[in-house]
Amino acid sequence: MTATLRGLALGAFALAVGLARPAAAHPLDIGYLRLDADGAALSVVLDVHVNAAAHLLGLAPGALDATALSRRADALADATLRGAPITTPAGACRWTTASAALHDRTASLTAHAECPSSVRTLGWDLPFVAASRVSPTFQILVKARIAGEDHVAIADKLRPSIALTATSTLGLTAFAWTGVEHIGAAPSQWHGAAGWKLPDGLDHILFLLALMLAGGSLVQILGIVSGFTLGHSITLALSALHVVRPPAALIEPLIALSIALVAAEAFVGKAQRHRWKIASAFGLIHGFGFASALNQLELPTSDLIQALFGYNLGVELGQVTIVLVTAPLILYLHRHRRLHPVIRCLAAAIFLAGVAWFFQRL
Fold first, then answer.
1. Residue 106 pairs with which residues in a beta bridge?
2. CB of 32 within 8 A of CB of 47?
3. Where are the alpha helices (DSSP H) in the chain?
4. What's the pLDDT tens digit per position in 274-294?
5. Could you give the dihedral angle defined by the CA atoms of residues 261, 185, 144 and 306, in that order, rounded to the nearest 10 degrees?
6. Which H or E element spans position 151?
7. Mean pLDDT of 79-102
């Protein structure tokens, strides 16, 4: 092996380590918040993975059993829901009681609040989401029932506040933008308070890059991307009809394995015609991750379809953007044989990152 190739190999290994490090176990990445306004009384339920609850309390993972969680209900409420008041036009609501229970591996925190008058409009900052100690990609899916109407929102590090009114409608645009952000295609995903950073949707970007590294024309690559969209569309139908709900513990390792598989194919230089099938399967699997999350909010079917459609649309727009930006460089590498070792080293880095994510998500 020449010195140049040895350097590329070492660089690929270092890159793989750097790429894999930001990935967190996905059960820690998401929480579910249900808010029910009954006149001036508010009931709020927060469901998170038990290890996420431990992180929020500053404890080591595995430190909470059912008894310990119940004893620490007020502390968990102070670290999450009570970190900021729920505000209404008539004033802030007053937090009252809190309780917590463990259901399998889910920590369920219930808190109550009394508002100055009947609630039809509310705003709520969620500082524990913005400064989450759980995961840099932590999201809260919110389902609120206000004046007899259901509403859906998403809160994350970039949008840690929610604003809901009795007359508001489901935000199709918000879910579409969430899809763009989820795959790391939004500019905000590439920089933070400390400057440049790797995007949260890095695993998705690496999968697309691995597909392109295996070769093909721009038209073929866009066709592969369309295969991914096909997978998401199937997921949408299955989820809306409540036909299949695979557990996240199965889906997330499969996503990592699919990344490693496609990268290995690019490394050996076999641009198979079946890549669009792999992309479709990846879309199906990856889409199930978000669809199953929304299913836990128990939305009406019409609202669920609208939310998933917006999310899938955002994913499609985001991935087309990624392809159009990166494809010219990858096609250039393929046209010059002397640059093919660069392709192999990039594929090796993505393969190692996929394997690392697989073991991390088990």
1. 49, 103
2. yes
3. 3-20, 50-56, 66-71, 73-79, 127-130, 172-182, 202-213, 218-240, 248-268, 275-295, 301-335, 340-361
4. 677 777 877 777 677 666 556
5. -80
6. strand 149-156
7. 92
DSSP, collapsed to helix, strand or coil, labels residue 105 as coil
Distance CA 114, CA 118 (A): 10
Which residues, 6+ apart, have CB-to-CB distance to 297 below 8 Å?
A: 32, 34, 141, 143, 152
And the tokens for 348?
A: 């090796």
Q: Give the separation between CA 121 and CA 135, rounded to whole angstroms.
A: 30
Q: What letter represents residue 342's amino acid?
A: V
The tens digit of pLDDT for each residue in 244-265 reads 666 666 777 887 888 888 888 8
Q: For the chain, give the mean pLDDT.
A: 77
Q: Do 232 and 312 contact (CB within 8 A), yes or no?
A: yes
Beta bridge partners of 122: 164
Cα angle 108, 109, 113 (rounded to 5 degrees) comes to 145
Higher pLDDT, 202 or 189: 202
